[in-house]
């Protein structure tokens, strides 16, 4: 029979034990050991095993329960819930039940019992206890009025906040129904929603309604109602929350009156009014707002998006982004300037401003009102001012370029003159050499005269708004630059590969073009390589957009663009430690190119050379 009991215990997942008290010997079943995560041979059969498993804080309770069982000679049962330590270190709850089955007079000799793991049950009880306590605290101490209402409308339980709100004591409210203290004009709407909740048409509802206070006063409340049902889905009671919104309602009433006056004043001053209802997804545009773009009131509905569709495509993304940012609380105010299409297809500039005047229960914007002001004339004046400033800026740049051309180009010619004159006056120069130098002098003189002529043209340009241009042969200007730099080319044995087509001609400023080409070729010579023969390749291009220009590529020392890329065309910026570098050539070149709508691009690697691509048109 005893074995049968053991089998039953094992099948019910209970671990049994059999303790021989005088021998300090305990027989633990396999299920007992498995409860704590141990195998059959891992726990010794002694009372010390039991003592080591129990959580120390629970040991006194266990000992006291055992003592009472012994002293009462078994009349007081041994049954207790205590905590034990699992093999994995976790804590488990165990219900321990036992009974002394053999006595020697008053001394217990043998005791049997079982252990059942009740951890899940304990967790459920603790969770429920916490949940109930949390609900009680939330109910009693909530700053919002909370009530439990029967399905008939009678108050079952009320908290302090709702009593303070209505001026009744808890005992007084318990004797009433919500129907008795609801304003008559709001009762029907409340009862309708209540019935829909009972019929499971809705899960609950929210309503703004008025209540009658004990002193006869009226308050506005935001009411939230939910329903509690039993397992059979039978309604038990309603849980209601009441938030006093009397102050807000009074403010809204004042605001509406203020809005009426504001709209009247705004319309009188020529501005238009719009009113966006985010709750109902509608928008109102005043008559003045629509007449601003040539529309009548019957030509514009209250569906949002129509105004957005008329906003100029280039302005629409920012307009929408600004509105959304304000609604989402990402900006403190809404203001946007955009162009909007009129009925006749033209565009007007509008200054659009708005402000939230109502919020919903979640403190999200519910209503925004704003104004539209026609600023087309102001925008046109701004555009004229910008154009004037651009003209002045362009003229200043051209004057600056002219000063640089004078100092840079004339210095080159003067330097060549000095060098040639020094050689001519040198006593060791023979007649043949003097004859050759005289030829060079004539050529330099001719080029200087041409440069001065071009500079004179630049001077006359400064009195006009447009740079004077002419059709020029690109190859001729490259040949002139090569001739001007002939001494340096010969001295450094520079290989010039000139691929410019002879027939290539385009419209450009002669003075600027001479300076641009000369600067780029002279730089290529100046920053030549020392480990190979210097080579400069000159070529022409015309891209898919019909833009024309030229390329100057060399095999020189190169430029570290990662380090100097942003400063490459800056004034007085030098990069290679050359004593003769003044950091002005590339600055001049870039300004001259851009003055006529061109651009310059550069590719370079240290030790491999540099390529300048110049768009002249």
From TrEMBL:
Record bears the keyword Transferase: yes
Domain Histidine kinase: 405-617
Domain of life, source organism: Bacteria
Enzyme Commission numbers on file: 2.7.13.3
Cited SMART domains: HATPase_c, PAC, PAS
UniProt keyword annotation of Kinase present: yes
Reactions catalysed, as given in the entry: ATP + protein L-histidine = ADP + protein N-phospho-L-histidine
Residues covered by the PAS domain: 28-73, 131-201
Protein keywords: Kinase, Phosphoprotein, Transferase
Domain PAC: 78-130, 205-257, 334-387
Record protein name field: histidine kinase
